[in-house]
Design brief:
Strand order of the largest sheet of chain A: 2-8-7-6-5-3-4
Oligomer: homodimer
Number of helices of chain A: 13
Largest sheet of chain A: 7 strands, mixed
Structural class of chain A: alpha/beta
Largest interface: A-B, 95 and 94 residues
Order of helices and strands of chain A: HEHHHEHEHEHEHEEEHHEEHEEEHH
Helix content of chain A: 25-40%
Shape of chain A: globular
Radius of gyration of chain A: 22 Å
């Protein structure tokens, strides 16, 4: 490893073909934002769109906006746009509800498609909501479901001919480790099971090819690398090939074939729309559409290339500065998502000390410091400055004061 | 009945103690908005709050806002405020998800609390999503649930000792007919069943006393009389007395006792928070809080008094103008919600002709014209002008032209 210098990072920024995107976000020049894997920043085009939605569409056009401004169509029109970011086709993706609620819909739908099987394989240490929703489904359905949550290195050996569904998060929320989507989906299909990928930490930060990988089902979050805004609605994907068999249990009025007939009997809409349940989140959808449009301007191959390069450089810098931390993420960039996590028992206080210097990453209990690399707005030089700050904090024990040690929850 | 005149309505407005509230909403002077039972108008204080949320909280403070601006607490702080509008106590109401999703949670939770029973009684012609979600639960749970949906006048006779749950909408979405909450809840309890009220068409338009009526469970919509904005999140209520036994199946990470521990095993939060599932809808919550605060300024007894008076006057006016319409709503204001519905086979075209005159009510298939009376911003004189316009449209067959007959869905 050559000894890295700050001027090298400055030069990388000068050559970066994605660098111009930073100006599309509301980010102070002196802010280093390494938390886009938790909450993406504000695209500059959002406030104007929201103002228009609030004042014109809600304020002036009122109820007429459901048709006039296509409020009713947004779950599918934005869904079709997200589809282009994850290798899905039209009418396969829907913007609706939360990732959590969508996991429930898809897992319940999958179990019903494999009535002779009851086993759902997932990973211990998976993002908590994925585990919890499966546990909720197990409690509700009793003997029809058996959740088999095993350590990461045992997942593959537990996928067998009794398996109905495999639910994995493509990029691990803590470590950033990435599953091989092609191989795991293929293995799952060899055993006759269905594959549900949680793309919360993938979408918008890399190329995802759901159709090419023959993925059955997927969910994902839109407020991380999609920059959709705090609590923006999630998406769900059901492969075209399953849409005739697939039935989800949250059969709300907007998922009906003819919602405004107000029939007494539910009849699912054709295609992906059957995944809808209640009234769409109109205001949040408006912000999300702007953010997705922005991401569609970028080349995801370039995005991924920069993301991997940034992760590699960050690890090099951390290692160059001594042995303060264990690296929790894969060192091989090809099997790592768009983040690097490092471990220290005083992780919380160290992150607080960094935040005090306007360098924002996040902390995941008990000991993970997470740094997300969103290639649309992160500068190479930010990596250098972050690790310099980190080294200073460690060398001078700056984290070891009461100011930084009081634990507060952050999402 | 005295023959009514326009000047009488003008005088009523001059004496109206709620009249000053109209100026708190973004409503053009020449607009008559009778659709607040579908989508409430924009409170003038909302745009500024949203701008602050978008630019300052999301744009500047970013991820730190979850704590700094209490994003994480809003489901319960706004829930506690809504509680004051429906006669509930602190920690009994939660703002989360949609009415549809909340119906599923509460109905599933109720069935689990009556394991020896499987019958859920509801009303045919109830708002569609209430019926559909029960049907979804029935499909999912098989023999553990039997949905008994019967005509309105047979509901009472079907509540028996085999009944686990009764789900009724307090005010009917089409007719505006109101159930007697005290009596039905009491009858339900006499049979050992649980009572779930859908308050979508009640909340904010009248006094509701959940605790006084010993109601077990309730849900409701916030974008109608609460003016929370298009697609704003719904609320759910679980009586304190059931919170230790109650378990809902959508066990997402935000409903965990310690969400940021990321434990592998779900453990429900204490109190109403266990009803949370995914990440809260932060932007929508900001608008909703402003709207709820506005409503809390009003005296709900006064609101109800004006609403009943308006309904009575509207019916008088319709009848004074001849026999164009059948009145679908109860003529007795004491058993009517805050709307009057009238019936005509050409209802859709008639409503379109009214809308063309800037008088906005709505249409519910196949033949209901709905007029909602939101006492905070509706003027008495609006009633007069609406019925005058309606009479003109009918007398001159103005609705009977192609312009008004093409059916488009509106929510």
């Amino acid at each position: 490893m050559t000894h890295l210098t700050r001027s090298y990072f400055v030069k990388l920024d000068e050559q970066d073909q994605l660098a111009h995107f930073r100006n599309r976000f509301q980010l102070a020049d002196d802010l280093i934002y390494l938390n886009g894997n938790s909450l993406g920043p504000l695209p500059k085009a959002v406030p104007r769109r929201i103002e228009q939605l609030i004042n014109q569409e809600w304020g002036q056009d009122l109820i007429r906006s459901w048709n006039k401004h296509q409020w009713i169509d947004k779950p599918t029109t934005i869904g079709d746009k997200i589809a282009r970011l994850i290798g899905a086709g039209p009418d396969e993706v829907l913007v609706t509800d939360t990732t959590s609620v969508n996991i429930f819909k898809l897992a319940a739908g999958a179990i019903a498609m494999r009535p002779e099987r009851r086993k759902i394989v997932t990973e211990l240490g998976n993002f908590a909501t994925d585990l919890y929703l499966l546990q909720g489904l197990e409690s509700l359905l009793g003997e029809a479901v058996e959740v088999c949550a095993v350590p990461r290195d045992e997942v593959i050996s537990h996928i067998d001919d009794r398996t109905a569904l495999v639910l994995l998060t493509h990029v691990h929320f803590k470590s950033g480790a990435m599953w091989n989507m092609t191989d795991i989906t293929q293995l799952t299909h060899q055993h006759g099971a269905l594959m549900l990928w949680d793309l919360s930490h993938s979408t918008g930060a890399m190329v995802v090819e759901l159709n090419q990988c023959n993925v059955d089902l997927a969910v994902g979050c839109t407020y991380k690398y999609l920059n959709g805004g705090p609590g923006s609605p999630a998406f769900m994907y059901v492969s075209k090939c399953h849409q005739n068999q697939f039935k989800q249990p949250l059969t709300g009025w907007i998922g009906h074939a003819r919602p405004f007939d107000f029939d007494d009997q539910y009849q699912p809409a054709a295609g992906i729309k059957q995944g809808l349940c209640g009234t769409p989140a109109v205001v949040a959808n408006a912000a999300l559409e702007v953010s997705v449009d922005l991401l569609l301007e970028a080349d995801l191959l370039q995005v991924r290339k920069k993301s991997v390069a940034m992760g590699n450089l960050f690890i090099d810098l951390i290692q160059q500065h001594g042995n303060w931390f264990n690296i929790s993420s894969p060192v091989n960039g090809q099997v790592r998502g768009s983040q690097v996590s490092i471990i220290h028992p005083a992780g919380y206080a160290i992150m607080q000390a960094l935040i005090a210097r306007n360098i924002i990453g996040d902390f995941r209990a008990p000991d993970h410091l997470r740094f997300g690399f969103a290639p649309l707005y992160l500068r190479y030089v930010d990596l250098w400055d972050t690790v310099e700050a980190l080294a200073d904090i460690m060398a001078h024990h700056i984290w070891d004061c009461d100011q930084f040690k009081q634990h507060q929850a952050v999402t």
